[in-house]
């Protein structure tokens, strides 16, 4: 349990570090990736809705505290994204290796759209509608591109930190 | 693989986490700067800043490489354009030298040189915000170096500063700067040559928008736009006058529904910004 908390902490901090530094230079058509969404969805796929929701909440809150806007919207969004992605994974029987990529793309798009709606309702989003659509689509695409690279890495870290009572094959 | 959890306890957990999130939103909304959440935010930033600095130092060349790669096709054109600009600038400099001498003499007369050069804190950009929804940078100087919230941030030389943004949050050893391209940024400005005053506002990745320009203003394009000093209820504006914001790129005529406005291309290249100056003293308008 302690080990899982530590591993999750390291993953989130690393993600936020890269997102605020390196990925500024590696933007895709002016948009940076949303790594917290990717991490949340990958954990949800591997560990189910329970862990998905907790990781989403932690990752979202961590990102919120680095922002200069009202905090909590990302935490709210990612709690729901983690839960939904975990639930969805349980009902999909497909063994396709593309499944994580698709779930990350769909989950990120839905999450970013939800985030913008909440931020707009709170009067915190001053972007135009075209920008909103562009960010939604491009972050989903960027997430899909990064998933094949990051999924195996995250999977090894997360599965390696599972409590010992889980039997692995 | 995935172990099935009891759905009821999971649902309860999600409801609890959502409630906490909503509580955080509400709390933070009501007590922005002063609440306990601001303290946690400050701690998080203090924790991240040294690591961001380290990562930026290491990845800077990597980033520069990709930025260079993306700009490769336009480099040859840019090179030629720069060469012709250099030759025309050389002749301008000679003409300017005379003006400069007169200007210096006048300044001395008015003893203004002190007031126009407020003390500055030079600092390095260590991170570029974390979200797609706000345009901020993090710098490596904080309250222990004298940086305070609302201080203007510039780049270039102290004699010819270009406006970068405004400090919005400080920790002991780092500070967050909201860039002029952020949509919640606004600054009073004036167009060179016309003496027209207006409000310049950020528009994200698009050019800045300058509104409140008087209808029928003659604008040719490429005029420089500077910050405008002003005084409201005896308090001077945040930004000292005469800081370069950008060049006029387009005049968008208004119609019945919309007001006329001017698009301004920022003078600062935020993609490659590495060093900035935090202006310490507010100059009187």
| Beta-strand content bin of chain A | under 5%
Helix content of chain B: 25-40%
Please name the two chains that share the biggest interface, counting residues whose Cβ lies under 8 Å from a Cβ on the partner chain.
A-B, 57 and 57 residues
**Span between N and C termini of chain A?**
21 Å
- What is the alpha-carbon Rg of chain A in Å? 15 Å
Topology:
The complex is a heterodimer of chains A (169) and B (285).
Chain A: H1 2-20, H2 22-25, H3 35-47, H4 49-66, H5 73-91, H6 99-121, H7 129-160
Chain B: H1 7-30, H2 36-110, H3 113-116, E1 120-127, E2 136-139, E3 152-156, E4 161-170, E5 175-179, E6 186-191, E7 196-201, E8 208-211, E9 224-227, E10 231-232, E11 235-236, E12 244-252, E13 261-266, E14 275-279
Antiparallel strand pairs in B: 1-2, 1-14, 2-5, 3-4, 3-14, 4-5, 6-7, 6-9, 7-8, 8-13, 9-12, 10-11, 12-13
Observed structural traits:
heterodimer; A: 169 residues; mainly alpha; 76% helix; 0% strand; globular; B: 285 residues; alpha+beta; 6-stranded antiparallel β-barrel; 3 helices; 27% strand
In brief:
The complex is a heterodimer of chains A (169) and B (285). Chain A is mainly alpha-helical and 169 residues long. Chain A has 7 helices and no strands.
Task: Give a written overview of the molecule.
The complex is a heterodimer of chains A (169) and B (285). The longest helix of chain A is centred in the C-terminal third of the chain and has 32 residues, at 129-160. The mean pLDDT of chain A is 87. With 169 residues, chain A is an all-alpha fold. Chain A is built from seven helices and no strands. With 285 residues, chain B is an alpha+beta fold. Chain B is built from three helices and 14 strands. In chain B, strands 1-2-5-4-3-14 form a six-stranded antiparallel beta barrel. In chain B, strands 6-7-8-13-12-9 form a six-stranded antiparallel beta barrel. Chain B has a two-stranded antiparallel ribbon with strand order 10-11. The longest helix of chain B is centred in the N-terminal third of the chain and has 75 residues, at 36-110. The relative contact order of chain B is 0.12. The mean pLDDT of chain B is 79. The chains are: A mainly alpha (169), B alpha+beta (285). At the A-B interface, helix 1, helix 2, helix 4, helix 5 and helix 6 of A face helix 1 and helix 2 of B.
């Amino acid at each position: 349990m302690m080990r899982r908390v530590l591993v999750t902490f390291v993953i989130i901090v690393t993600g936020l570090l890269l997102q605020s530094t390196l990925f500024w230079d590696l933007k895709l058509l002016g948009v940076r990736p949303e790594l917290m969404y990717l991490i949340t969805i990958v954990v949800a796929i591997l560990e189910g809705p329970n862990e998905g929701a907790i990781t989403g909440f932690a990752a979202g809150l961590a990102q919120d505290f680095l922002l200069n806007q009202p905090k909590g919207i990302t935490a709210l969004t990612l709690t729901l994204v983690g839960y939904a992605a975990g639930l969805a994974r349980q009902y999909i029987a497909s063994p396709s290796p593309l499944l994580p990529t698709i779930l990350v793309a769909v989950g990120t798009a839905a999450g970013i759209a939800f985030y913008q709606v909440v931020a707009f309702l709170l009067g915190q989003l001053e972007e135009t509608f075209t920008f909103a659509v562009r960010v939604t689509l491009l972050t989903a695409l960027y997430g899909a591109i990064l998933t094949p690279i990051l999924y195996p890495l995250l999977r090894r870290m997360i599965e390696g930190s599972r409590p010992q009572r889980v039997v692995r094959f | 693989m995935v172990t099935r959890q009891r759905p009821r306890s999971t649902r309860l957990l999600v409801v609890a986490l959502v409630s906490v999130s909503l509580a955080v939103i509400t709390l933070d909304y009501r007590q922005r700067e002063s609440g306990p959440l601001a303290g946690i935010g400050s701690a998080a930033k203090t924790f991240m800043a040294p690591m961001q600095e380290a990562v930026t130092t290491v990845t800077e060349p990597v980033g520069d490489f990709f930025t260079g790669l993306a700009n490769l096709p336009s480099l040859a054109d840019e090179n030629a354009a720069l060469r012709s600009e250099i030759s025309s600038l050389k002749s301008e400099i000679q003409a300017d030298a005379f003006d400069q001498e007169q200007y210096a003499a006048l300044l001395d007369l008015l003893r203004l040189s002190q007031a126009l050069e407020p003390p500055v804190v030079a600092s390095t950009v260590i991170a570029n915000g974390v979200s797609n929804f706000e345009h901020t940078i993090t710098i490596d100087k904080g309250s222990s170096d004298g940086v305070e919230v609302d201080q203007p941030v510039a780049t270039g030389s102290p004699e010819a500063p270009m406006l970068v943004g405004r400090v919005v949050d400080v920790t002991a050893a780092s500070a967050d700067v909201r860039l002029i391209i952020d949509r919640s940024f606004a600054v009073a400005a004036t167009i060179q040559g016309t003496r027209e005053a207006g409000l310049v506002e950020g528009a994200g990745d698009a050019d800045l928008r300058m509104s409140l320009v008087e209808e029928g203003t003659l604008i040719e394009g490429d005029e420089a736009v500077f910050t405008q000093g002003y005084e409201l209820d005896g308090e001077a504006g945040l930004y000292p006058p005469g800081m370069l914001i950008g060049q006029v790129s387009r005049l968008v005529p208004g119609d019945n529904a919309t007001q006329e406005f001017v698009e301004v291309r920022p003078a600062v290249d935020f993609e490659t910004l590495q060093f900035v100056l935090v202006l310490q003293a507010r100059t009187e308008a």
